[in-house]
């Protein structure tokens, strides 16, 4: 029974929401689209360099003509299945299939070199499935209460919430705070193109009719995440480079009873860490996996195995990185603030479908929560089943030359972009953004804040101007929620560089002390 306090709905309405949400997913056409998304996601994850964000962005162009639920089924399932497929290259060739599997390489590849690749992939699959299920529970329990709380927000709080989401993504941009700010400002600049949200006047369109409605989301996203990544791989590819051969000796496949007992503790650590981290906007599975790996090492009796082939470290990292998905979907749908870059892409697709993520989404249609949860659950079960098959063919796929993959991706990028509105202009936007994205990649500017700025820019501007028109700047200072969100945002930007300055100073002082100890006999 779902607690009435958690769902904020009378029990009969809650029961109807659950049955209605699940019933939509169990229709044969929705299940068919889930199966399609699973196959695409597993393949995407298995190819290094083809990220889940790129795949979801590319698939968005082909799903916009579908029913919204069917489109969501495809995109969410690609995301889920990629979380399983990306462990294969991480374990077999020490290369993360997506950023979420970075921590998988810490122990996955050492285990594979010990002849335990099959065992590593099975433990990873069980951990990933468990983490995903815990994340789905988080979504089911907390999405509606969070949306109900956020629905009380006025313009000052909504503006502060957008600032919070932007700064969180910038703050975790791998220490590149300044470059993250520049990328976010670029996205906000793109968001100003089109019509004024208050007066409706045209601005910054340069006389181009196609820009009257603003810069199109999907071509920008496909360009920054898809085309840019392919161009970057082309630029950095070395003709005579020797491609790593995947480890083909998988060894033992299923863990014994003793091994299963060893996996319980790291699964619990990973699920707890990932569930909390996933609720923080912009903090993805890569960060959660590393944090959980470190926590598992701290509480393990076999600390010496970590980094050298620890099944516990592998399981904790993979459980945590997938457990973030439920929290990420929760914050994306309930608050309208993307939990990670994949969710930013998903918001762009939903807005084209006419679905506006945010506080009103779940309170107006509570069954959507359980529709999303059911899609994620079915996708998880199917992906787990496929992962437990001895996938010898995956080893062969890893030997495919990158050149063939580049051609396939670029063709799909162009076809998918054109199919959105049958517009050549959209293809030009995609190619231009691909070149800009290549520049950003080469010089270390993260693409996530740029996409987030483009998507959330209109929401930020409209609420900022409404607040200033109504109460002036005092509107922000009289809102405790806005002040708290601004304080957290400031901390997200200021604390990382201050911490780095402190570490540099500490190392400098340590170096001086060592120098004095050498000079003084």
UniProtKB/TrEMBL annotation:
The chain crosses the membrane at residues 33-59, 123-147, 153-170, 177-194, 214-231, 342-362, 368-391, 403-421, 427-460, 472-495. The keyword Membrane applies. Residues 31-452 form the DUF112 domain. Keywords: Membrane, Transmembrane, Transmembrane helix. Pfam families: TctA. The keyword Transmembrane applies. This is Tripartite tricarboxylate transporter permease.
